[in-house]
Design a protein that fits this description.
242 residues; 54% helix; alpha+beta; 8 helices
Length: 242
């Protein structure tokens, strides 16, 4: 993943001249080159980032299923539905490229970073063509890896879910402990010898594990945010003037 499409795109962005506009697109021509006119038009109207959003796509069944599921999850994770069905077909202005290159994280999900930098964004809907020749080398496993990179790079919700799950599981465990004590000492139920002690021990250890896992998840989420070293803000200073 580190040395595939996303790194190639980043290499091209770094190689571009300072005052050049950049258009990123796949080379298989499923994204119609004629749509580049719409990107250029948006640039002329003052846009800094232009995202081509797929209105329809002539792909195989499983690729369409995977893509639909991924974009649904992604839009929910990052809480922005505008980027649903936005792929690696977009354009960025010189100042947007300069701001983008300030992101120093090693594992790049470039389209997500472009979306995050802000500035003047524009979305253009288009129809994606059927592949005319050749066979894609981008397997489902590679798409899955890219999807994981996109979600993990821009959302800590999965880690927050772990905390919620641990909290609920701990409450259920505590209820179980209280119930066993209630049976043993209030109801005076004749339990199997050793059963109460064994059950209380297992439930207590389970509660401790859940609390530990939730604590680790909180710190991992913090580490995830810190190690990327993304800019805290991008202002409209002379550094990013047109």
């Amino acid at each position: 993943m580190l040395f595939r499409s996303q790194t190639a795109v980043w290499a091209g962005l770094e190689a571009a001249r300072e005052n050049e506009y950049v258009i990123v697109m796949d080379s298989d021509l499923q994204d119609p080159p004629s749509a580049i006119r719409e990107i250029l038009k948006a640039f002329q109207e003052g846009a800094d980032t232009v995202f081509m959003r797929r209105r329809t796509r002539a792909d195989g069944f499983w690729k369409r299923v995977f893509a639909k599921a991924y974009y649904l999850i992604q839009s929910w994770m990052i809480e922005d539905k505008r980027f649903r069905n936005v792929g690696d077909f977009y354009g960025i202005s010189p100042r947007a490229r300069k701001a983008l290159l300030k992101h120093t994280e090693y594992i790049k999900y470039v389209r997500g970073l472009v979306a995050q930098i802000g500035f003047n964004q524009r979305f253009v809907d288009y129809d994606r063509n059927e592949r005319m020749a050749g066979k894609t080398h981008y397997s489902l496993s590679k798409m899955f890896s890219l999807g994981i990179s996109g979600i993990s790079g821009f959302s800590i919700k999965p880690l927050i879910w772990v905390v919620y799950f641990a909290f609920i599981a701990t409450l259920l465990t505590l209820f179980g402990i209280i119930y066993i004590l209630f049976l043993k000492f209030i109801q005076k139920v004749n339990l199997q010898p050793g059963w109460a002690f064994l059950s209380l021990s297992i439930l207590s250890l389970s509660a401790l594990q859940m609390i530990s896992i939730s604590s680790i998840a909180i710190y991992v989420a913090r580490i995830n945010q810190e190690v990327k070293r993304r800019p805290l803000y991008l202002n409209n200073s002379s550094e990013f003037e047109r």
